[in-house]
Amino acid sequence: MLLEGFYHIAQNNWAYAYDKDTIHVRVRTKRDDVEEVTAETGDKYNWDRFYREYPLKKTGADKMFDYWEASIKPYNKRVSYCFRIRAGSETVWLTENGVLSYRPMPTGGYYDIPYIHEIDLHTVPEWAKRAVFYQIFPERFANGDPSINPAHTERWGGKPTYDISFGGDLQGIIDHLDYLQDLGITALYLTPVFEAPSNHKYDIVDYKKVDPHFGTNALLHELVQACHLKGIKVMLDAVFNHCSEQFPPFQDVLKKGRKSQYAGWFHINSYPLATKDGIPSYDTFGFYGHMPKLNTSNPAVKKYLLEVAEYWVKEVGIDGWRLDVANEIDHYFWREFRDVVKAANPNAYIVGEVWNDSLKWLLGDQFDSVMNYPFSNKLLEFFSDSRMDGFDFATSISGLLIRYPQQTNEVIFNLLCSHDTPRVMNRVGNNKRRLKLCVVFLLTFMGTPCIFYGDEIGLTGGEDPDCRKCMEWDEDKQDRELFDFYKLLIALRRKHEVLVSGSFRFLRAEHGDRRIIYERLNHRVHFTVWMNNTGDKTILSHPMETNDWVDALTGEPVRTKDGRMFIQLEEFGYRILYRSLQ
């Protein structure tokens, strides 16, 4: 065994409390190097009486390592442990003091979880595990009240640019809630709705006022109430990293310079405020001078923004916040933000915009979730016309799952595209069959799925601003077959709890082969998903011990032959099977 490949620490994503009675432990070993991993556990005050062994299950692998996991139920909420690792006739013990050829006397040098304190648990909203989100860019979804259109509003459905408006508003969303309910949506994510000069509203002027071209504060309240009556949650976009240059405190600094009482609200590098060679003399979002960066460590700024966060939760009843440019704001601010929001609504869902590994925000003291762009990038690479094979895809996805604790993986915000990326249809070369494979994976995978408005009826679009096209409401111009497909898969996910909280594992993912099989499993139901990510018809085979499988979409029985399942798939085809374990 390659001892240098062993890894475990008693914290973060390697050992953590899943709930008040359960600890999850994970161990890394070199890929295909180890046959068996066992956790030897006991109580540090009475080892022998409470000694228990837990076999670890290999739950995933990347190109270099295997990942093993077990759930431990310790007596009295504390546990000391080491790992017994075997390959062939060789057995070693992994402890906090290193790798030994013998088991040391318990519990010196063992890993230790001193006590599960419920106040320290990383708890996430239960409703978010089961939610199916729909992201709306309000300016482009529907024009419900032309009387509040901006001046020079363009004809609905025209070519989007960075500056023009089409008149989408909150009333337009209210008018189409039946459409969303019919699709099966249970939660909305709205990009910013607060007063701002742009069409995207990420340059906010007044954080406590709905943009007049979208409606009023009262109308937003009406929208939230109407959604709640239909069982739909509402998450708004919080832009706390930066504001508009028209934001009154920034205007005061422009006029008064360092003498302004708001000078400390921003990161000013030199006075007077100016832009030279495209670089402002103050910190900004990117290098956009019209979006100055807020100093969230300033007590007055912090107080103002936390009041904003609390206001919309308490007064309007929103169910969560999506946090724009979240990784460029200090962790102290986000810890206080979480305390304020969770005090206002303990079930509020907090999603950060972080495009990379986000573990340091996901340890229970800041966010519940992040926008899982690493997932969408790998998914779209595999299901587009790329060179990625099943082995590379499986190792990539397994590597993403090991990044975070399970409770985070259960609510990670999974998406195929957004207002910041090309449309999924464009990413898969306008091939609807490839798109369907993406959607099947999204809706049968672990995490909280989100659909970008219009994807379900075939809306296309390239890079921003082309991805922000107007929603198409003429049914004759919608892909209704695609809509029905989305509706079918959403209903399947909502019907089967195993697709929400069951374990995930690849059963088949090989070098040089773009056909895959994976499973979702709990104590009641076993799902397997078969995918042919090639342009040729195929027969996909895998050992299956039982003969009680059913097609999840048609209800037809699917039989095995001599202990194997043989599934015929069309080009870019799929099949979803399940069986009851009770």
From TrEMBL:
UniProt-listed Pfam families: Alpha-amylase, Alpha-amylase_N, Malt_amylase_C
Lineage top rank: taxon: Bacteria
Gene3D superfamilies given in the database record: Glycosidases, Golgi alpha-mannosidase II, Immunoglobulins, Oligo-1,6-glucosidase, Domain 2
InterPro entries hit by this protein: GH, GH13_cat_dom, Glyco_hydro_13_lg-like_dom, Glyco_hydro_b, Ig-like_fold, Malt_amylase-like_C, O16G_dom_2
Domain Glycosyl hydrolase family 13 catalytic: 135-493
Keywords associated with the record: Glycosidase, Hydrolase
Family in the record: Belongs to the glycosyl hydrolase 13 family.
Protein name from the UniProt record: Alpha-glycosidase
